[in-house]
UniProtKB/TrEMBL annotation:
Residues 8-91 form the Ketopantoate reductase N-terminal domain. The chain crosses the membrane at residues 6-35. Pfam families: ApbA (PF02558). Keywords: Membrane, Transmembrane, Transmembrane helix. This is Ketopantoate reductase N-terminal domain-containing protein. It comes from Melanomma pulvis-pyrius CBS 109.77. It comes from the Eukaryota.
């Protein structure tokens, strides 16, 4: 008897969708994409990927794709991975899509990875989709990926500029994990981790839901401050005085939100201006030859910048409802406006 081949549907074929699909295909999964009609032409040919890890091109092919969400009902998937940004997921079109996902997966063994980032988004998703709590867990791609056709980032040795220019997407998988999940639904998280790790070239990890949230939510205050500072290198960023001090105070306020529990309080007690600067400078160093801050400037601009701001505003609202003043975060949000 043949071993079952996992079938994965990825919602969205942006940077997160394509890179996740590539690694899942290396792990032996059959991957399909649900994409907007304007993406169909680009997906009709193999995707050329430039890896900053070894400065070579990878060809990703063998996937399928469709553009009509109603087609989900006619297939069976082991996993659905949602890679849309939270703003797209929460608008009217996105909510209709979430309901369609719910109709397709409800009462089945389909496991859902919610890769959109927003405050308490999983609870909203479960309510709108009608899916069971044990079917859905949070996840995000820790691999940094972007389209060289959309933005030109500074080059650092040993990047091969000729190969980079030929790629549809460029990516750097240089952190301890390439994909990260929380344990909101442990069976989902552990099964997906085992599948992803079968790719042999990238690593997926699972952490507690609270620790996941503590790690993700505060970083958006840092991005807001970096935008105000015109995205300086993290090496030496603590010398930016008042703005950096304000950013780290805002980080501590977000860590202290009730949803972050004891891990948040512990993180809050250990967070210092110098410590945050060093931690991010270490990431900046490890990400080379990808330029970390140039990537952040591109990735957190435009629509995503609006989403980041909405997340910070939601943190303010959440904190004030708990009786916290959230003074630093409110000031940072006001300056960012």
């Amino acid at each position: 008897m043949c071993e079952h081949q996992p079938h994965v549907l990825i919602i969205g074929a942006g940077s997160m969708g394509i890179i996740t699909g590539y690694h899942l295909s290396l792990a032996g999964a059959s991957v399909a994409f649900l994409v907007r009609p304007h993406r169909a032409d680009a997906l009709s040919r193999p995707q050329i990927l430039y890896s900053y890890n070894d400065n070579t091109l990878k060809e990703y092919m063998g996937y399928t794709f469709f553009t009509d969400p109603s087609e989900m009902a006619s297939a069976s998937y082991d996993y659905i991975v949602i890679t849309l940004d939270a703003a797209s997921l929460r608008n009217d079109v996105g909510q209709r899509l979430v309901k369609t996902i719910g109709d397709a997966a409800r009462g089945t063994n389909t496991k859902v990875i919610l890769g959109s980032v927003f405050l308490d988004l999983r609870r909203w998703f479960l309510l709108v989709s009608g899916l069971a709590d044990e079917q859905v867990t949070n996840g995000y791609l820790a691999i940094h990926a972007y389209s060289p056709q959309a933005v030109t980032l500074p080059l650092h040795v040993p990047t091969d500029s000729v190969l980079l220019a030929k790629s549809d997407l460029a990516y750097a998988d240089r952190l301890p994990q390439g994909f990260s999940l929380d344990d909101s639904a442990p069976e989902v998280a552990n099964a997906f981790m085992a599948l992803y790790n079968g790719c042999g070239v990238s690593r997926c990890t699972v952490t507690s839901a609270v620790e996941f949230s503590v790690a993700v939510n505060p970083i958006f205050a840092v991005f807001a401050a970096c935008a105000l500072m015109d995205w300086p290198a993290f090496q030496g960023i603590s010398k930016n005085g008042e703005l950096w001090s304000l950013a780290v105070k805002a980080v501590r306020e977000i860590q202290g939100l009730g949803m972050h529990g004891e891990p948040g309080k512990l993180a809050m007690s250990m967070t210092t201006e110098e410590g945050v600067a060093k931690q991010l400078a270490d990431v900046e160093r490890d990400m080379r030859p990808l330029d970390f801050q140039a990537f952040n400037q591109f990735h957190h601009g435009g629509k995503v910048n609006k989403q980041d701001r909405e997340l910070l505003e939601a943190c303010v609202e959440y904190g004030e409802a708990e009786g916290m003043k959230m003074e630093a975060l409110k000031k940072l949000v006001a300056l960012s406006g």
